[in-house]
Please model this.
Amino acid sequence: MKALPPNSLPVLLTPTRPALEPLPAFTTFVQSRALAIILVGGFILSCGISAALSAGATQPQPSILDVLLKWAPLIGGGFLFNIAVSIASMAIGTLSGVLLGLGQISPSRPIAKISWFLTQFFRNSPWLVLLFFVMFLLPFELKLGSLTLPLPAWFKAIIGLALPVMANVAEIVRGGIKSIPFSQWESAESLAFSRRQILWQIILPQAFKRMIPPWMNLYAILTMATTLISVVGIQDSMTLTKAALVAEGRLDLYLPFYTMLLLMFFAYCYPIARLTQSLERRVAVKF
Amino acid sequence: MLGQPLIEIDHVEKSFHNTVVLRDISMKITKGECACIIGPSGSGKSTLLRCINALVPVSRGSIIVDGIQVNDPNLDKLALRRKVGIVFQQYNLFPHKTAIQNIAMAPINVLGRPKEESYERARQLLAKVKLSEKADAYPGELSGGQQQRVAIARSLAMNPLVMLFDEVTAALDPETKKEVLFTIRDLAAEGMTCILVTHEMGFASEVADHVYFTDGGMIVESGTPTDIFKAAQNDRTRAFLSQVL
Model:
């Protein structure tokens, strides 16, 4: 049985190879320190520039730092909401994406074709457009007989973001499976393993390691993309930052406020990126 | 049963798209026989082995393995493959499993044997290929020759009726080659039916009961090792042997 003709589809993802040569530990340390200095420095500088700009103001104003600290808990809360949305979207997107990815390598042609089409469709659509699409597609409540389930905007937003995640996870799964040499299928087949056994006992355990780094990478991208939900009117950290700026009505606050928001996301996503890199390196050494 | 063919290959043809790989192959392998297939690269030797265990479907002709019609469209592939073991040039061990797990995996999951029994049998097979001390090593920690011997043990664990060897020493250095060849020689001596595709002419003349010389998807000449290596009739055979001997 020719279960998987080798290279029948281009492998779009090659999760095995890290994009960059592994950096020596020392350089890495210096680099990340330099990065931190630049970011924090930029933050202080932005406060400074803003302070200088507002120096000519006639009325006495609270200092920029005081205003920032006043709003930080609210915006931080909004940021946690972004994280919650990212986790929920990732969970839904991963579950459906795994199914879609396995569907693409299904021996049943219709299933494979449909899975392929869905993957391509959602992978090649702008995330924001998909988000709008789902916001307007889903009703605000769902009637199941006598039961009426409300579909709040945040829930629809989670679904909207889960769609592109699903398609990308499907590609990660498919690419991971395809990255295992065909000879593994062949030798398992000749030991009379069934297709299902080969997939679950031989191919997926090997492919899993290779799927983790791109999956984490996708999660970091999703987390940053959750700010898109502010566009469809959900109160996330982005919306709250805007609201705070409107409430304060001071031009000199824009730079510090958005820098603060950037730093929150950076502080969350950068460690994920580092972890991904080190995992990639470890996976690459194997084999 | 002796004399009754275990494997009957009858006018088999195989082409991939427009490339004809096997033109007209017929052979009969009896139980306990060791057959060696020699010939230049690209003459379809590996394809023929893959046809026997239905990894590759034949285009025309018939193959019967112990009563199973391999070219039957309703072939029970799993039943066939329980009878036919194959060892590949590149070992193809499962890298995420230890040597002993590689061997015990198929008996447990495919044949449904109890774990204890399967591991016990795996240990015996490791001893047989002289790798008892490597039971818990991962394939990546073994040399090529050791990996190949584990691969042989893995196939044997299924208790096959026939073993196919597809250029199993081609990727090995002369020294490790010997370990593997000795293992195969012992198997053949024990009466295991073997079909070997090989470039080891010395080995073929030593262990084979029957030698087939293939070229261009056809069996050009066949006979006992003496017939082929000492008194080849065909010009093509002689030309090939003069290159390699």
